[in-house]
């Protein structure tokens, strides 16, 4: 697939995010619908003076130590964490795979949650029984798809969340540590599908600690530290910097 590399899909200028209360993160779709776009209590700096542009065809990895801000930056792009200063412009449909299980309705079945997540991502018009079955088959949940997800293990939730998002056809694909949970077979299967999606989705951004995933699939790497972007370049170059800093 050819891309227009001069087309900007994401542009962030001098953006700050403050005051994310980790104890009040979204617990379901109702919370997202009611609170999306609202601000949080200030005084806790999360992201500072972020400047980032992403062009069509770019495959980007956000890397950094725990608490560096890489997941928060992904959530700002997804519209979950709004900036209190600066601007962010995102052009295109987004499929976020962020915080496995967050956004699910615990009392609803896996099948119902597939439809609800499609609704939340503004892709309900693309939902049909064929797509639903593809998602169920890939997740390998079988008859458990019709159980309330409050009965699911973390691995089952991860499989459902990944399968639901990866079978959408967005312009922007956002993935956050999606392979941290799950058995080796499912992880390998997911990686193979993700590689295909990476090639064919106009914009793909992933948060991961796994150097091999970044080097094999990404064209660009962003290094974050203490809420700041401190590196932006080729994956091999950025990982050298990242590795040196981890050893200090």
TrEMBL record:
SUPFAM superfamilies for the chain: P-loop containing nucleoside triphosphate hydrolases
One Pfam family it belongs to: ABC_tran
GO cellular component labels: membrane
Domain ABC transporter span(s) in chain numbering: 17-248
Positions in coiled-coil regions: none
Keyword flag Transport: yes
Family assignment from sequence similarity: Belongs to the ABC transporter superfamily.
Function: Part of an ABC transporter complex. Transmembrane domains (TMD) form a pore in the inner membrane and the ATP-binding domain (NBD) is responsible for energy generation.
Entry-linked PANTHER family: TEICHOIC ACIDS EXPORT ATP-BINDING PROTEIN TAGH
The protein's name in its UniProt record: ABC transporter family protein
Species, as recorded: Rickettsia bellii str. RML Mogi
